[in-house]
## 1
Amino acid sequence: MLNIHEIAAKAGVSIATVSRALNYSGPVKEETRQRILQIAQEYDYKPNPIARSLSTQHTDTIGLILPEMVDEFFMDIIRGIDEEAYRGKHYVLVSSFHTQRNIAETLLEFMSSGRVDGVIIMAPEGQKGLIDNLHRSKRPLVLLNPPAGADAYTWFKINNHQGAYAITDHLLGHGYRRVGMITGPHRNSDAEERASGFREAHRHRGVPVSEALIIPGDFSARSGYYGFMRLMSLLEKPDAVFAANDMMAVGAYQAARSLNLHIPQDVALVGFDDIFLSQLLTPRLTTVHVPIVELGSKAVRYLIRMIKGEVDPHLPYHEELATGLVIGGSCGCEMSSVVAPF
Amino acid sequence: MLNIHEIAAKAGVSIATVSRALNYSGPVKEETRQRILQIAQEYDYKPNPIARSLSTQHTDTIGLILPEMVDEFFMDIIRGIDEEAYRGKHYVLVSSFHTQRNIAETLLEFMSSGRVDGVIIMAPEGQKGLIDNLHRSKRPLVLLNPPAGADAYTWFKINNHQGAYAITDHLLGHGYRRVGMITGPHRNSDAEERASGFREAHRHRGVPVSEALIIPGDFSARSGYYGFMRLMSLLEKPDAVFAANDMMAVGAYQAARSLNLHIPQDVALVGFDDIFLSQLLTPRLTTVHVPIVELGSKAVRYLIRMIKGEVDPHLPYHEELATGLVIGGSCGCEMSSVVAPF
DNA sequence: ATGAAAGCGCTAACAT
DNA sequence: ATGTTAGCGCTTTCAT
């Protein structure tokens, strides 16, 4: 691999001219430029990005920090981010954090390192010390589905409240009056907002929430299974259940089968997230669609604008993406009984 | 953020001594080292990795290039790679390739850029021009589930042949004699090996393969659905079906339901991959488990050894990871009828 | 329009 | 044990 000096020598010009010619960053006689471009092409010359980064103080790379938890979304979130980064000619340095890895530490390392120009971080539970350390970040930062108390920073999030409200309201509209809920993890912002949407829908309808019907879960299928079991073992059973995510709803389906209960005849069931799996359940799960790919691409687009200085990186910007209701048969809505899934 | 000069000044030593003290790369009087370490800590000094990279010619970063297709595995493959890279103190620069993006181009860009010390690439279909361009890579390279004809390069792969052989043999052991197969995409190495394992199992058992029962699929649930439909519309129907991956098996389940056929009573069904979803099917899908996380971590571990020069990067190394049979009820094996899934 | 030269922040060979 | 200095390959300012 040749370097700029060798190209300059071959072209009979100085390295400064080569740099200007290649970057269109200054005046170069058209004829000279052509000669340089021609030679660069001939020798397949590519400027060394490390050297360039050292000089320009930017790397065209964004850091992505993800929790271990995102499972189903992992693919979509990375896809949205990767695609958009590619469009914006940026690279993506990923780091998912594992239990043993401190997320705040990873963030600071990314930040201070000069390895990335900005960071996107998803940490709905505000992992240990995160919030307290965000301000130490010297580079543009975008939070995805942020934990509570992060309003001083720029974030993009799913409107969990609205989605939960809509789907709960849908259940209440069906006439269910004892709606149970299996919640997500304690202190997880997505989980908390879904619970609050659930409550608000009840309030607006004037239907009291029975606290006994609110069972803690942790977003795993397993917890959905046991949560549903618990609900159905109550003396006063629910007539509908809202699982705070589809994974738990999947567990609930399993539990229902064990108990020989039919959905929605014996009890209605709805979820949240619209994961691929939910369309394969029978009856298809009624759930809330979340625009996860869009979440990622919006975050990248904004981050790149911050990096370029097109928007003020210090002025927090917030955006909530609307969710959409996906009606299946699990809530009690009529579905044509035999539908080819494909 | 301070730089090495300022730390040196505060410590009253030269930058060389600071560098040696921090990197343990040369003799420094213990007392001096302590003073330097102390000051570095106090000012939260971190050497600039870009500058270091320019000087050392390595970045402690590995490039990861993935096809768009890996869906279900995306998470696992990245997890295995990220975890192991973290252990080896390396960063991961990802790039999934989208239709519009040329994979060979991405590879060369990664390679020539000096942005990464080595690359892991998964491209079972040998995307356009890939093989022809691999040799242009000047840095260590590891292929994952390589396309055919890549033996000149180091690769790690799942032993698809063995897995397909085992599960086909299992079906034949059940006594099925008309086993259909829904294959994966044409020219996809995983798909082709699974087909060859299928055939070899027949050969060893002395059971002829009926070509009419081999239906092309593309690894999507949709193609599994239609493939199964086609098989069951034949005059001489199969008594068992091997879907070359679980996703297609999922489609087959749907098709079976549409047709009101029971698995395994009317027709047995098995898959390949052991994706999460397969354990939720009823009856649980009999399938082949693939050690995908391990595949990723092995690749990283070996790549890092190549980078460090512990192994010869020019000597191709190959490793096939064994798969395992996961017995469910879909092949006709007796399962205790009611099993709590969790 | 072009070139010379000063960084960017660090490592490592060489000198003391 | 410590310091001096020459890169690493590029961008950019300042001369010309």
Note: Chain B has three domains: 4-56, 61-158+292-321, 160-290+325-339.
## 2
Amino acid sequence: MARKQGSHAGITGPKVREAALRLFARHGYAAVSMRQIAGDVGVQAGALYLYTPDKQTLLFDLMKSHMEELLAAWEAADTGGTPLDRLEAFARFHIRYHLDRPDNIFIAYMELRNLEPDNFAKVEGLRDAYEARLIDILDAGQADGSFAVPDTRLAAKAAISMLNGVTTWFREGGRLDRAAVETLYWDMLRKSVSA
Amino acid sequence: MARKQGSHAGITGPKVREAALRLFARHGYAAVSMRQIAGDVGVQAGALYLYTPDKQTLLFDLMKSHMEELLAAWEAADTGGTPLDRLEAFARFHIRYHLDRPDNIFIAYMELRNLEPDNFAKVEGLRDAYEARLIDILDAGQADGSFAVPDTRLAAKAAISMLNGVTTWFREGGRLDRAAVETLYWDMLRKSVSA
DNA sequence: GTCTATATTCTGATAGAC
DNA sequence: GTCTATCAGAATATAGAC
């Protein structure tokens, strides 16, 4: 990365990232111009290039940061216990984390195809690492008989797809509140892997 | 729609739609230029405007057609029976239909944000109509005690999210074949709504 | 039914003033 | 650290020849 690291670490750098995240999530990477991002931040288009070498790197940095923070947050949230305990912790963590950051999950799952091959491979690796945490839990439950999951790799993908879906429809102040949604999803997930 | 209906109904019209579908699914609506579509079909960019009034209408027509065909196909596939029978039919139909048309579901769920408000409302209405078919099945099962689904609207969304996920990772000739995938997903869905 | 040519606007990115 | 000015190319869409 050719960005001048730290030397412009004022307030504008983070604002550029925030604006890019919001706009990419809302309209898609390809549909958003550097001028739009600049306008949102309140600077001219040329000024963006003080904070990122190019548009592609801006997207990649956002996705990479998101996945790394997601992984670190789960490591911190995983308190151990029985496979069932851990699966519940995972489900509730995943929903809560993503409802707090709807823009992040949007770009993490929808802009993969706009990454250049090298960047794609790196982000996909991080995503696989996160999925592997869930597979480990399912394997443990399958081994001790608390789950009946014939294919834990497929089940992990199915579970994450289901949980991710919540961000596409949940709206604050709607028919169901966060706690209710969290519990309803956990209830379905728990039963779906039950013995 | 200002397109000259039928008068150019040779072979190029369908080819334009096929190329647009494939390219939009692969790279995203905003990232694909009319020149790329034209190049893929083997005509010049200007010639596309004989088959569509503009790029936006091309996207909208693809999404609308897909949703209408999906609805009609399910109406034909729904053979009735117990709620459990119908849910199994729905799950297997949905997976099979979408694995046969990966490009369609890709744009149907990822390009909504690129539709203009009027077009968005129409496509969302069709999507809601499809979802309503699943809600009906869940309601019936909840009423006769064969399912335990406290919130059928949320459950329908969760189920469709889970089933849709299959298109993001399934590859022909991979570790699992279609029949195995279909059965594994159905098994999870069945348990997730079980009493 | 497709072509070439073109109008107009926008794109990502850079140079250099202040 | 942000500005203005600008480059070179690509975007959608149209006009009119054949």
Note: Residues 8, 10, 12, 43-44, 46-47, 50 of chain B lie near DNA strand C (CB under 10 Å from a C1').
